[in-house]
């Protein structure tokens, strides 16, 4: 029967989680930050332009009013105490020549008597001192016949021949603001209308420049998408802008870590498959041999070997699972909690007492002088200590001893030590015994080569250091023994409250 061909699976991204934050477009966010100030400043620019245009429009008209007042003032004089005006008809016609803007003028004597011009022109509000000290043309805004007007006025000092105090006459010229408004509107149109043409062009250029500036991100995305799922090589940063280089560098670091993890997993799977092949092959061979045997004793021996192979395979699987749990354990997870290292070690030692009897080894425990509290995962720490004790029992000959010790020092460190009287580990081998499936040459003890790898992984998860020494209490030169020491950082002690004065009831 033909086996169906395995369909090639494509990676499908997971659906977006409704609880996740809404993603923001970098393009849209930059565009908002660029256009929002522009659109807010544009009305302000129009308002400022309008005020400036009005100021510019007022200047020539004010100069014209000033000239008119000056001309009128020159036509007013006093003869024998009477005010004489020599305003010709042509000059009067010039003042009245504007049909669009109504122009008004007025000449008043020292006592407010009407000399010439429009009688109903509003009067300036000035005191006598201001009138006598006035020498130049002044301006004010007022209303005439319900229409806003701009008025230029001046006080003319009249000379007297009798030596009395000189008198002053008032000369005023006013005009409506229609022409000023027309000029200001013309200036506004000349400035604002081109902006309506320039603004869309500016928006288009901003859009194009922003899209062009972000195009390296799109190119980087396409380059990453074009890669195969197995390509974990570093991304070249030669074609990306300087601002994106740190992102590419971070991606390359992540790819490097991911590649290392995948290589470790592949090697681990290959080693595990290789290690599993031996007990499985032995189980198959013993089962086939038992099936061919007719002698009960031979069948019993084959079944005993089958049981040993099954036990070795079970132990290997259990240690593989323990190593996988240790590698996937998160140090900051909810399983990390304060615990008494001495109490935990005592319980683990009690679990191995019966096994030590079967090996005829003296298993002892030395407790600390006071409770030693660390932060850790009790399940993983029990697995760590169990592997160290199991390793010590397997390599210590019968009649030897294994001691588990918990102690602390004044450097805020806690120590967990497992000491045996076995053959020890040569200094050249101590760095390699923590590798997966590594076994020292010439070693005849049963084992899978994973126990110390599990110890190192769990120790790293707890921020502990693992060191190997010779047993300083060994008495036989050919059995130097081994001392495994784990150094745990102790949590900071809580601050002590200041002594309070006693309370008397």
UniProtKB/TrEMBL annotation:
<keyword id="KW-0902">Two-component regulatory system</keyword>
<dbReference type="InterPro" id="IPR050428">
    <property type="entry name" value="TCS_sensor_his_kinase"/>
</dbReference>
<dbReference type="InterPro" id="IPR013727">
    <property type="entry name" value="2CSK_N"/>
</dbReference>
<dbReference type="GO" id="GO:0000155">
    <property type="term" value="F:phosphorelay sensor kinase activity"/>
</dbReference>
<dbReference type="Pfam" id="PF00512">
    <property type="entry name" value="HisKA"/>
</dbReference>
<keyword id="KW-0597">Phosphoprotein</keyword>
<keyword id="KW-1133">Transmembrane helix</keyword>
<keyword id="KW-0812">Transmembrane</keyword>
<keyword id="KW-0472">Membrane</keyword>
<keyword id="KW-0418">Kinase</keyword>
<feature type="domain" description="Histidine kinase">
    <location>
        <begin position="271"/>
        <end position="492"/>
    </location>
</feature>
<dbReference type="GO" id="GO:0005886">
    <property type="term" value="C:plasma membrane"/>
</dbReference>
<dbReference type="InterPro" id="IPR003661">
    <property type="entry name" value="HisK_dim/P_dom"/>
</dbReference>
<keyword id="KW-0808">Transferase</keyword>
<feature type="transmembrane region" description="Helical">
    <location>
        <begin position="186"/>
        <end position="210"/>
    </location>
</feature>
<dbReference type="InterPro" id="IPR005467">
    <property type="entry name" value="His_kinase_dom"/>
</dbReference>
<feature type="domain" description="HAMP">
    <location>
        <begin position="211"/>
        <end position="263"/>
    </location>
</feature>
<dbReference type="InterPro" id="IPR003660">
    <property type="entry name" value="HAMP_dom"/>
</dbReference>
<dbReference type="Pfam" id="PF02518">
    <property type="entry name" value="HATPase_c"/>
</dbReference>
<dbReference type="Pfam" id="PF08521">
    <property type="entry name" value="2CSK_N"/>
</dbReference>
<dbReference type="InterPro" id="IPR036890">
    <property type="entry name" value="HATPase_C_sf"/>
</dbReference>
<protein>
    <recommendedName>
        <fullName>histidine kinase</fullName>
        <ecNumber>2.7.13.3</ecNumber>
    </recommendedName>
</protein>
<feature type="transmembrane region" description="Helical">
    <location>
        <begin position="33"/>
        <end position="53"/>
    </location>
</feature>
<dbReference type="InterPro" id="IPR036097">
    <property type="entry name" value="HisK_dim/P_sf"/>
</dbReference>
<dbReference type="InterPro" id="IPR004358">
    <property type="entry name" value="Sig_transdc_His_kin-like_C"/>
</dbReference>
<dbReference type="InterPro" id="IPR003594">
    <property type="entry name" value="HATPase_dom"/>
</dbReference>
């Amino acid at each position: 029967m033909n086996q169906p061909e395995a369909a090639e699976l494509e990676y499908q991204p997971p659906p977006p989680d409704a609880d996740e934050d809404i993603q923001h477009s970098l393009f849209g966010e930059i565009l908002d930050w660029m256009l929002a100030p522009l659109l807010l400043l544009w009305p302000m620019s129009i308002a400022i332009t309008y005020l400036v245009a009005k100021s510019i429009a007022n200047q020539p008209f004010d100069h014209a009013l000033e000239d008119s007042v000056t001309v009128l003032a020159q036509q007013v004089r006093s003869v024998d105490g009477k005010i004489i005006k020599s305003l010709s008809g042509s000059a009067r016609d010039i003042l009245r020549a504007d049909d669009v803007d109504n122009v008004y003028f007025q000449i008043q004597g020292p006592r407010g008597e009407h000399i010439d011009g429009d009688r109903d022109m509003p009067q300036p509000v000035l005191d006598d001192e201001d009138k006598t000290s006035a020498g130049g043309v002044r301006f004010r805004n007022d209303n005439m016949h319900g229409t806003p007007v701009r008025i230029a006025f001046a006080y003319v000092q009249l000379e007297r021949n009798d030596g009395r105090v000189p008198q002053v006459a008032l000369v005023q010229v006013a005009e409506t603001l229609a022409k000023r408004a027309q000029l200001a509107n013309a200036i506004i149109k000349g400035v604002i209308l081109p902006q309506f043409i320039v603004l869309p062009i500016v928006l288009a250029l901003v859009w194009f420049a922003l899209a062009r500036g972000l195009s390296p991100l799109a190119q980087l995305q396409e380059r990453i998408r074009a890669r195969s799922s197995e390509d974990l090589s570093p991304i070249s940063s030669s074609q990306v802008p300087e601002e994106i280089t740190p992102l590419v560098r971070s991606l390359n670091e992540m790819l490097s870590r991911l590649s290392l993890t995948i290589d470790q997993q592949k090697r681990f799977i290959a080693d595990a498959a290789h290690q599993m092949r031996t007990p499985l092959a032995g189980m198959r061979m013993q089962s086939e041999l038992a099936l061919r045997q007719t002698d009960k004793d031979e069948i019993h021996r084959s079944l005993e070997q089958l049981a040993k192979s099954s036990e070795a395979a079970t132990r290997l699987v259990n240690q593989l699972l323990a190593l996988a749990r240790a590698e996937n354990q998160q140090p900051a997870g909810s399983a990390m909690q304060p615990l008494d290292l001495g109490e935990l070690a005592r319980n683990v030692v009690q679990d191995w007492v019966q096994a030590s009897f079967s090996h005829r080894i003296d298993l002892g425990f030395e407790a600390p002088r006071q409770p030693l509290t660390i932060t850790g995962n009790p399940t993983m720490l029990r697995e760590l200590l169990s592997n160290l004790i199991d390793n010590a029992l397997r390599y210590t000959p019968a009649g030897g001893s294994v001691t588990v010790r918990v102690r602390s020092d004044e450097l805020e460190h806690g120590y967990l030590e497992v000491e045996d009287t076995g053959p020890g580990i040569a200094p050249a081998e101590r760095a390699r015994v923590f590798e997966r499936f590594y076994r020292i040459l010439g070693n005849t003890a049963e084992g899978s080569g994973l126990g110390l790898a599990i110890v190192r992984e769990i120790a790293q998860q707890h921020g502990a250091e693992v060191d190997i020494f010779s047993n300083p209490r060994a008495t036989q030169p050919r059995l130097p023994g081994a001392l495994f020491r784990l150094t745990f950082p102790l949590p900071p002690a809580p601050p002590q409250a200041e002594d309070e004065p006693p309370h008397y009831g």
